[in-house]
Amino acid sequence: LMEAWEKGVNPEGNSTNPSNWDFSNSFFFAGTVVTTIGYGNLSPSTVAGQIFCVFYALFGVPLNLAFLNQLGKGLNAHLITLERWVQKPGRAQVVQTLAVGTFLTAGTLLFLVFPPLVFSYVEGWSYGEGFYFTFITLSTIGFGDYVVGTNPNKHYIPVYRSLTAIWIVFGLAWLALVFNV
């Protein structure tokens, strides 16, 4: 029972174990459910929570897919505008290649290169461990061997895990767009 408590999220708490359900944990948990990453370190610890999670996932996963699809369409519309600008008569192939290269480079830096720097600084991981976490997360594999904001010896800013969840959503959208391109 104690092991389930340590791994599970419980909004009630009791005299020996305070609630570990704050906004940051709930936002991160909700994000890992709807993105199907499921690190394995957070799970509902009550039957009512587990039942709610099933229904949340039944509706949340398809809604998240629809959201990512719309986000991808919006980003794609901007890419089409850029493509039309680049492909106007008189624009060299070099400009076209430069535009695609800039898009890929900016996204790679924003979603795959810089985040491991942040994670290695905040979590105390090596850059390689941070990159591994980044890739395993954005590929939605989510082993759970590395998870942000879980070290009990560290004090995290309250929005750290929420910002990570937002990075995950936009990183997934960018990757989907890269696969589309």
TrEMBL record:
The chain crosses the membrane at residues 47-68, 94-118, 130-148, 160-179. It is found in: Membrane. Keywords: Ion channel, Ion transport, Membrane, Potassium, Transmembrane, Transmembrane helix, Transport. Residues 17-73, 109-180 form the Potassium channel domain. It holds the Pfam family Ion_trans_2. One of its GO terms (biological process) is stabilization of membrane potential. Its main location: membrane. InterPro entries: 2pore_dom_K_chnl, K_chnl_dom. Coiled coil: none annotated. It is a multi-pass membrane protein. GO terms for molecular function: outward rectifier potassium channel activity; potassium ion leak channel activity. GO terms for cellular component: plasma membrane. The keyword Membrane applies. Belongs to the two pore domain potassium channel (TC 1.A.1.8) family. This is Potassium channel subfamily K member 16.
